[in-house]
């Protein structure tokens, strides 16, 4: 890779491409070895000199925390120009995502300080992730309906345990019933109906649950319908505890 300096050209061998790198990094040792030159650093910048004649080949001023090697654009070769385009073509949208979605005023301030060089895209639009992050869910209103007797309304849900029990139970049905598999949900609910009727002489009038297929299926709906039980399904994409009780 050739790049023209002030009084000649510099050669970079064995260049590695890292697509995720923010800046192009230069190994001073390889640079001086490949070009038979020396690099002197001071508080203002760096100077590249011929190793034999000590003639100054390039002077670069640095304003940030790093020493920056800038080649004159008038003398840059096509390969160097392409590198420059690749470096400066980072859009403000890309920087917005890299830096954790800061506001436009923060990006503008960083751009002015030359720490984050970026370009504005013509079709720049609102960040979708930022819109989702600023969403606010309204609280559920206080319910005005109350059960008159126990078991008028039964709240139930199916949860998964991360660890198997000693008896190999993995799921549990709230009101708590241990299940080895989700297929046991219907039989457990039907047995619970019989138990309530026998032990308390009461009838379950309604069942509140989520939209899981363990509750919303032909067998369950037929069972609830035959017993005159209302099936209340929670609204999709809402927090289950708010609706499951």
From TrEMBL:
<dbReference type="InterPro" id="IPR012337">
    <property type="entry name" value="RNaseH-like_sf"/>
</dbReference>
<dbReference type="GO" id="GO:0003676">
    <property type="term" value="F:nucleic acid binding"/>
</dbReference>
<dbReference type="InterPro" id="IPR036397">
    <property type="entry name" value="RNaseH_sf"/>
</dbReference>
<dbReference type="InterPro" id="IPR039537">
    <property type="entry name" value="Retrotran_Ty1/copia-like"/>
</dbReference>
<feature type="domain" description="GAG-pre-integrase">
    <location>
        <begin position="66"/>
        <end position="135"/>
    </location>
</feature>
<dbReference type="Pfam" id="PF13976">
    <property type="entry name" value="gag_pre-integrs"/>
</dbReference>
<dbReference type="InterPro" id="IPR025724">
    <property type="entry name" value="GAG-pre-integrase_dom"/>
</dbReference>
<protein>
    <recommendedName>
        <fullName>GAG-pre-integrase domain-containing protein</fullName>
    </recommendedName>
</protein>
